[in-house]
Records
---
Amino acid sequence: MTAAGAGAGVAHPSAEQSVTSAINRAAGGRPIPGNQVRLLIDGSSAYGAMLDVIASASRWIHFENYIIRPDPAGRRFAEALAARAREGLHVRVLYDALGSWRTPRAYWRALRGAGVEVRPFRPLAPLDLVKNFSRNHRKLVVADGARAVMGGLCIGREWTGEEADGGHCWRDTAVEIAGPAAAVLDQAFARTWEIAGGKLPDDDVAGRVTPQGQAEVRVIGGEPGRERTFRVVELLAAGSINRLWITDAYLLAPPRLFQALRDAARDGVDVRLVVPGSSDLPLVRNLSRIGYRDLLRSGVRIFEWEGPMLHAKTSVADGRWTRIGSSNLNPSSLLGNYELDVLIEDTALADAMERQFRLDVARSREVTRRPVRAPARVSAALPTVLRREDPEIQPTVHHPTGRERRQRAALAVRLLINNARRSVFLPLSIILISLGALFFALPKVTAYAFGVICAWLALSAWREAFRRRADR
């Protein structure tokens, strides 16, 4: 039999089937049909939907978040959860011990006193460095395994605008899901709850859920080292044909993903990024700006959001695929944390996401390049200068909080955008100079301190090595 004859009866998959299979494998599961989905923008709509999910539960409520603050927003959720627990529902709250370290014990005691089961995720341990850096960054509330809200919002007044003059809230995105995918989200909660030392009874784990709509949802349960969201976004970049629009709060893409975005733009895909203009983590923003020139040279368009913090983590590709969740496009989220995202295949949701993206772009300043103003030969030899264009829609006047003012006082925005490397490496050089001065001024004290640190790291590494050996 010839080679041609041997392959004559083989059905070859289409390119679309191949891409779909690759996304399924990267996400860790096939799409779940039969869901109703609703886009939620900012805390006003997302918090309302979350409280409604809590109020609608009839059997159990599972609530998981990286940061739960004891401020007015946090108290509203505590009151709602405590009230349902007093009614006899099984209410479980899982918070990250590092993210919520400023929340006092009295807040958790009040919940426990009402009958809520509360667990911290991985309290800090001096000799457990690996786990200390691997946090639960998920944001989820699910009722009865049938209805859920998840996305990028933590619980605090930043998302309601209660701490800012004029009531301007952080810009964020979530999605409400009703249907079988909510049961899979509930199972994702069961996984992190078990890591935190709990175990759900069989009666409190969702089984079969009645379909509610037409949307197909892939649940991406990110865990350390599995790179699930990383690979999904990389595949979206590789497979996009027309456009890929990304909003990210702390963009510091690993080189592989960075290159995928550049390759897509060079191939004619409309790749756009919306990132914060001012951030609660200025160092991450400054590191992001270092890569601007390479992205811009490849044809990627970059927009910096004007106004309060942009905290959303979303992607929309070709008017078909929408990713919403807790994962930022940086190594911490993509490689080290427990994250939770969904990839939704629904044209109506993608259309709503694209409309919101256009609105965000209109309220952002586009970053562009221009030659240095100098004689032609000199200008051609020098790196281009970055500048920001005025937004199409002037944002509502935002009165910065005290914390925002302190962050902006260090350097003017234009200095930061034109000299991002200086803003990153200057503090680094100051730290190194200070350490060197300590070694010269106090050699014995510094040497002892350095020795203690080395011993601590050695013990932590020894402990991790034996634990991994025991897990084999």
---
Amino acid sequence: MAFFCHNEDRFMKKTEVAIIGGGPGGAASAIHLAKRGIKSIIIEKETFPRFHIGESMTGECGQAVRDLGLEAEMAGIPKTTKHGVTVYGQGGKGTFWLPVMKRDENNQLVKNPTWQVKRSDFDRIVLDKALEVGAELVRGKVTKALQKEDGTVYGVEVKLDNGDTETIESDVVIDASGMTTFLATAGVAGKRERGKYDRQVAIYSHVKGAKRDEQDNTLIFYEQKNHWAWFIPIDEDTVSIGVVTPSDYYRNSDEDMRDFYLREMHKINPALSDRVPDVKLVEEVRATSNYSYQVRDFTGKGFICIGDAHRFIDPIFSFGLHFALKEASLAADAIAGYLHDGVGRDQENPFAEHEAYCELGMDTIQEVLDCFWSSPISFAFFAHTRYNEDFIDIFAGRIYQTEPSPGLQAVRKVNAKMARLAAEQPELFEHVPVE
């Protein structure tokens, strides 16, 4: 419903949920809300399709796509089938592979391939689906969160593409603005804090001519701590390749970004160099720096932040799309309970339970990453041998473990031990190679 306020020379709309951002998190939120009979407006300033990284899906992320009813749309876009992830240690040695598997009705692991996609295509079909099921799209940039005296968020102010200002009042605002972290930046959610892996730079592009493995797996290559590369086939010709290095290492190279990218592609790991003897760039070379962060208190009266809008840990295990789609579904459940059944209305934070559950999953990935970086030999032993099934579960996205698996418990023990050693002898932990 829309109104025009003559005295303020601006438009006003009302809806149940206003969604900041039309990427996969925001669009998936709208789809799940529509299934629950809840109307939403998506505010997005960019026109799709548009370039984006984060092309690889976990097994549970693939299931989330199916839950959105997008299998037919997926059949119509270029993609590859992901059967697993192969990890190459320093010098191309110490390789291990983890397959994509699900748990069947007997709790047994069975094959369950997922996808790797060109995000420009994937993001477009999710947004199109959201509009198909009834969400409204407003083209513009959110400039302000509307708050009552007690801090309750009741909508947003938008600067439209044509320069007009529009007020959208809502019962709940979902922040799916990604790394923009709009509500944190606006001072509504908690402050954006640096994560453990923020002093890195990721430099990436799409290439043609790279040599894949037989199954088009996601490949990860390592040089040393915080210095690695990804290799993700996304259609029959194109591969997404990114190199991640310490920020100081890149700055000290004093190289043009494109030249640095092409050189590092051949330097990081011989197993990667063998796959890119002569590649053609089909996208410009882009970079993302200082990307590890966390926003606490990312829910509250009238608002929920999802995915990258409240936390980004490290892209190494391809959990970006997973968290966007999973938290979209969880947020829709929480909002439905709040709007339809009054769940949490008498609480200081009506979405506190939702926040705690989301943190449980992200904390699991943080712990696994900490183990990988601080004790890679232990990690490889756990993943490949001792707790193989537990790590298959984690890599697939079964990470909301209220009762931690033996593999996750082992990770926590190693992390505690390495933290003690780092406190006692910090000089030993400046560079930890992956073997």
